[in-house]
Design brief:
Length: about 240
C-alpha cells in the first residue's frame, strides 16, 4: 500500500507541474496587459500568503493568482527575521566576478592583495570619494576600479584623463582622496564606452556599486566594518576569481 501511495503522490505531482506552469504564464500575461510599461521577466509561487513573486529587471514585486494587484515592498519572515525580498534581490543581482572585464579596470593593490573587490565609480561622485577615503585604510586588498561616468559629460572627460595618465592608480587616488585636479591627454584609447555598456547590461544604475568575489553586489557606500565582514565571507565564495589579472 505504501508503494501504491507513493506512486500516486508522484503521479499527482507530475500532473500538477504543467498546470502550475500554465498558471504562471497566465499571471505573467495578465500583468503585461495591465502594466505594459513594466516588462515582466518572471513569475513564481512563493510560500507566503498565497503570493506570487514578480521580477521586473532587478526589482521584486508580488501579486495574487488573478494579477489583481501589485505589492511594492518587502516580505519579512517573522520566524527567521529575514528580509526575504532583500535576499531575493541580492540573488537576482549577482554578477559572476570571474567574468568582469578586468582589462577595463584600474587595478590598485594594497598589502598582499589577497582579497578582491570591484567597484563601479564616477570621479565626480561625492559618495564614491567618501568611500575611497575610507577604503584607503583597508589592507591586503586588490581593488578593481571601473570608471563609470554617469553623472555628467564632465565625468566622462575626467575619467578619460585618469585612464590616459601614466599612472592610472595614482591619478585616481589624487582625484578621489586628495582632491587634486587631473590634467593631460584624454584622447588615448580607453574603455569608458565599454564600461558603460557593461554596467547598463548589468543594470548598474548608481555609483558606487561594489561587487564582491562571491558575485554579490551592493549599491552605495558601506560602513567599513560591514565591508570588512563581507570581504571575509566573500573570499573563497561560489564565484571563482582566478581569472582576475
Amino acid at each position: 500500500m505504501k508503494i501504491i501511495a507513493a506512486a500516486a503522490a508522484t503521479l499527482s505531482l507530475l500532473l500538477a507541474v504543467p498546470g502550475q506552469a500554465q498558471d504562471l504564464e497566465r499571471i505573467k500575461s495578465e500583468l503585461r496587459k495591465k502594466v505594459p510599461e513594466a516588462p515582466v521577466d518572471s513569475v513564481r509561487k512563493v510560500p507566503y500568503g498565497g503570493l506570487f513573486e514578480v521580477t521586473i529587471g532587478s526589482e521584486v514585486f508580488y501579486t495574487d493568482e488573478n494579477a489583481s494587484f501589485l505589492v511594492l515592498g518587502s516580505i519579512v519572515d517573522l520566524k527567521t527575521k529575514e528580509n526575504v525580498t532583500e535576499l531575493r534581490m541580492r540573488q537576482l543581482n549577482k554578477v559572476d566576478f570571474a567574468q568582469l572585464p578586468f582589462d577595463s579596470a584600474i587595478k590598485i593593490v594594497r598589502g598582499n592583495g589577497s582579497r578582491k573587490v570591484a567597484i563601479f565609480e564616477d570621479p565626480n561622485c561625492g559618495y564614491c570619494k567618501r568611500f575611497e577615503r575610507d577604503l584607503a585604510g583597508v589592507n591586503d586588498i586588490t581593488v578593481y576600479v571601473f570608471l563609470y561616468p554617469i553623472l555628467s559629460e564632465g565625468s566622462v572627460v575626467k575619467s578619460k584623463a585618469i585612464w590616459c595618465s601614466p599612472d592610472k592608480g595614482k591619478a585616481w587616488m589624487d582625484v578621489m582622496v586628495r582632491d587634486m585636479a587631473v590634467s593631460g591627454d584624454s584622447t588615448c584609447a580607453n574603455p569608458i564606452d565599454k564600461n558603460l555598456a557593461f554596467g547598463q547590461g548589468k543594470r548598474i544604475q548608481g555609483t558606487p556599486t561594489i561587487i564582491f568575489e562571491d558575485g554579490e553586489r551592493v549599491p552605495g557606500v558601506m560602513v567599513m566594518a560591514d565591508f570588512e565582514k563581507k570581504l571575509a565571507s566573500a573570499k573563497g565564495g561560489t564565484a571563482k576569481s582566478a581569472s582576475a589579472k
